[in-house]
Every structure is written in structure tokens, then in C-alpha cells.
Amino acid sequence: MGKSLKARLLILLGMGILVTSGCSKSDIYNEDAVKSSLATETIVTEVASYEAASTESETTESPSSEVTETEVFSIEETSSEESLEEEISTEATEENLSDSSDADNKIISMDHSWKYADFSKINDGTATLYYADPPIAKGITICINAGHGTKGGTDVKTQCHPDGSAKVTGGSTAEGSTMATAVSTGTTMLDGTPEATVTLKASLAAKKALLEAGYNVLMIRESDDVQLDNIARTVIANNIADCHIAIHYDSSENNKGVFFCGVPDNKAYRSMEPVATHWQDHERLGKCLIDGLRSNSLKINGNGEIPIDLTQTSYSTIPSIDLEIGDRASDYSDATLSTTSAGIVDGINAFFQ
Ligand SMILES: [Zn+2]
């Protein structure tokens, strides 16, 4: 990405950290900065020989002294033997953007130089970035992450927090754990359908609605299996999208209503980076989405928020939430998912207003 633009956006985000309550317009998101950031193309980078990158930098600089062989390519074109510095320069980024400007989608692979990438254990799969039609495009990219759906994901463990500390709440992984299942299987709907099948159906409906509303959509998964664990999904979203919504169904079975997994009100957790810098943005995104869903007459559980310490939240450097759009007993007909998608679009519109 354009590093200077990304850095500018991060500075703006940092400046706005104290200005979040509810789903109201704030000055955190300078529209021009967001659009400028989005106007740049992320180079898909494959690092053939790689030693652990520093996780201290907010930008995506590759440690040139630690990379011995790097291949940078766009989908349409593979660049040849240039130095690493040249390949990651702004000029190269802009060139790749123009090369792919007429494409309506692009395959996104993990770039192992991205911050936190080395915490991921399953990352051979690819996501797909879909571009809104230019006449209506807003220049904002929404990551839709259909929960679960990674074969072998339960056999692998990843670190719950980047600093190695223990989970501060229960959830699918117990409080006090430092390692969690890389991607869990998920629940089963009362009709026997796996949650992963339903989250995919819901995510495809959300993708359609968001594209029609002018948002680019980064789809983490569009089939039964994507080889991207929860950290890989989060890292890709961090670097490609402007916000990240993971779609799930809760394991309860009383159709209790929609909620998002809020950031636990725990001092240590909210002091840990990147949570410290971003938790208020996560909360505001969640509240905007709940407002949007409520305004479309979706049933909301309580105040729409249940605090849970999630791997996704623990590694997110963009506004990011797990949205539980129902539970095992919930209806997931086309009509309901269309309404849910409309609510998500309304929430996103409010968030980026
Ligand atoms: Zn789930």
C-alpha cells in the first residue's frame, strides 16, 4: 500500500482515539484520507526466503536486510528483477494499480512481511477483492469474513494475543488460554446445516448488497474451504480493507437475536496493542451495525453487544468486529438474509458517514 498515505490514515486514527461513543459521525475518519488510502493498490508479495519481520512497525515495510529473495507481482503482470526498494516504492504501487484498473476483482494472497503475518499458521489460501462499479464506487473496502470453513483448522493452534498474554474472557476458547484453535468448526443449525454453510450464504448476500451500494468487498471465503486461519484472515483484512466484519451464528438455540462481540472491558486487554489503539473503532463499528440491523427490524439481543476476547480483535488494526447475525434457531432464508444485508449496508453507511 502507499505507505505514506497509510501512515497518514493511521495518524488520523490515532488522533481520533478519544472521540468514540455510539454510532455517530466523528472526525476519526477523514474521508479524503480514507479514499486516498484506498486508491492505492496493495502489491501481492511472495517472499520466498523470509525471516521474521519486526512486528513493531505500523507500516508494511519489509525488512530488506532480512529478505534474501522477493518476488512482487500483480495478478496481471509479474515484475522482474528489481531491487526490493524499487518494488515497494510508491511508483511501483501506482503502476500496478493502473495495470489492474479494468479488473472487477483481484486475488489476494498473504504477504508474509505484513505485521502479525508470522503469527498465522494456515495461510496458503486466497481471498478475493471485488471492486464496485466505478460510477457508484465510494472507494471504501469492506472485508466480509464468512466464519469457519477451513479444513484442518481445528488441528492447529495459534497464539491468542500477539504479546502472548492469556485470554481475558471465555468463548470458544477458555479464559486463561494463551493458544486457540486456528479455525474452529462452528456450530450446527437446528436443521442440521453447518454454521459454515450458513455464514457463507449470508456473506454472499452481504457482498451483493455492499457492491450494489458502491463498496468494494474483500471476500475472505467463497467456498466450503479456504486455507486461511483467523489470524491470516485478520492480517489480510488489515492490509486490504477499511473495516472487517466476520459473520457468525451463535451456539444458543432460542433465536436470541443479533449481537456483536464487543471488546472486553479489561484494563490489560485494552492496553495491549493493537487493541489499545483500535478498540474504540471496533466498538463504534459494532454499534453502527446493530443500529442498522435494528432499523431494518432485525431482532437484537439486549443492547446488541456481548464482550468476548477474540483472536480477530486481538490482531486487528482496522475497525473490526465479529457479528453474530443469529443463532442455531434463526431463520436464514433468502428474505431474512436480504434484510440482514440491508441492515449491514445501513450500518456501514453510518460508520463511514
Ligand atoms: Zn461462528
Question: How would you describe this protein?
Answer:
This protein has about 350 residues and is of the alpha/beta class. It has a single domain (about 5-350), classed as Zn-dependent exopeptidases (Aminopeptidase, 3-Layer(aba) Sandwich), CATH 3.40.630.40. The protein contains 10 helices and 12 strands. The chain has helices spanning about 5-15, 30-40, 85, 90-100, 195-210, 230-240, 265-270, 275-295, 310-315, 335-350, and strands at about 45-50, 65-75, 105-110, 125-130, 140-145, 155-160, 180, 215-220, 245-250, 260, 300-305, 320-325. The strands form 3 sheets. An 8-stranded mixed β-sheet has the order 3-4-8-5-9-12-10-11, sandwiched between helices. Helix 1 runs antiparallel to helix 2. Residues about 1-20 and about 25-105 have low confidence and may be disordered. It binds zinc ion. Zinc ion binds next to loops.
Q: Tell me the total number of β-strands.
A: 12
Query: How does the overall form come out from the CA principal axes?
Result: globular
Count of the separate structural domains: 1
Radius of gyration: 19 Å
Contiguous low-pLDDT stretches (5 residues minimum) are 1-20, 27-103
Query: Strand order within the widest sheet?
Result: 3-4-8-5-9-12-10-11
Structural classification: alpha/beta
Alpha-carbon distance between the two ends: 24 Å
Tell me, rounded to a whole number, the average pLDDT.
Answer: 80
Helix content percent band: 25-40%
Shape-level CATH architecture:
3-Layer(aba) Sandwich
CATH topology category name: Aminopeptidase
Quick one: CATH class? Alpha Beta
Strand content: 15-25%
* Ligand names: zinc ion
**Main beta-sheet annotation:** 8 strands, mixed
